[in-house]
Amino acid sequence: MNKIHTLTPHFPKPGIEKHTRLNRLLPGLALTGAITALSVWLSDFPALSHLGLSALTLAIVIGMVIGNTLYPAAKPWCEEGVTLAKQRLLRLGIILYGLRLTFAQIADVGATGIVIDALMLCSTFALACWLGQRVFKLDRDTSMLIGAGSSICGAAAVMATEPVLNAKAEKVTVAVATVVIFGTAAIFLYPWLWQLNAHYHWLNVTASQFGIYTGSTVHEVAQVVAAGQGVSPEAENAAVIAKMIRVMMLAPFLLLLSGWKSRSAVQQGGQNPGMRNITIPWFALLFILVAAFNSLDILPHSWIPALITLDTVLLAMAMAALGLTTHLSALRQAGLKPMLLAAILFIWLIVGGAGINQLVHHLFVRM
Asked: Is the pLDDT of residue 235 over 80?
């Protein structure tokens, strides 16, 4: 008697699938965790802390050293976990950063921060478009992508702008390389500028005002946190608030850019591409909500230090991941003209940003 064999579909068990993903994430998370532990330990040394080298700054430095030497060999095993740390853990860290702030502190930055951020965004993006196309003869998409990254929030703004422009992948890569390079330089430059100003008294600025300047001019959220921490806790808090206001401007910026592109397409006789893939920075809104919750003083005070320590660890892991994925070869790949454009925008953010910050603070004091 012949046996009848039936074929039954095989579905992987949910537990096995989760276990496999965890195995893929663990090496990268372990690496960023080890760099974080080393950075926190080193930051306690007086010789390093006096230089303004915080745990976050040390994490990105160590990450960059390993990223450009040993990490390429380990990348196949660590990449997924490192990417998670750079993206998800960074956003979670920024959300939890709201536990360090209250609405009173946000209100102190408030209108001043909004005006400064708006002026910096508009002036930097307009300068990028004009210089990129008229002076350096770059194509429109490359100029706009570099401008978006420099004026709003670095690589995240570049990635969010790409679907609106429908830009090619290689142009996105070039723009991301430029903002990562100059944004990373800002982490070390801004604490040094603070120390120079304290010594020579070029400008009469408080730590909070310097924090607003940092948040309104440094490229990435992670870079703002590291640069602000290299100055003082007061500067760090003001820098993060100013940066979150700037990040929240990403959504209206993309809506306006999409509307402009649609109108340009119609004027040129093409079809209206419509609104596509508008990115809303939800983590920035959640940051505000957590700060609002913290302002209500509901959480037990004994919980706050542990949560802030957890937040520092998450941000340091994100810094380590950012360092691991910042390759010096990106300088070569970006090309000369995009790098020159990004360099001029970087100078504008530093010098022009200082002027705009001083002007707005002066006007608000007189009002």
From this structure: yes
Write 260-268 long-range contacts (CB < 8 A, 24+): 261/164, 261/165
User: What type of residue is 260?
Assistant: W
CA distance 146 to 171: 9
Distance CA 267, CA 54 (A): 52
> 3-class SS at 329?
helix
Question: pTM of the full predicted structure?
Answer: 0.74
Strand (E) or helix (H) holding 69: none
Q: Strand, coil or helix: what is 13? A: coil
Give the pair of three-digit tokens for residue 313.
Answer: 């660890």
The per-residue DSSP string of 223-250 comes to HHHHHHHTT-HHHHHHHHHHHHHHHHTH
Mean predicted lDDT score pLDDT of the chain: 84
pLDDT digits over 214-229, tens only? 999 999 887 898 899 8
Burial of 337 (0-12, 13-18, 19+ CB in 10 A): middle
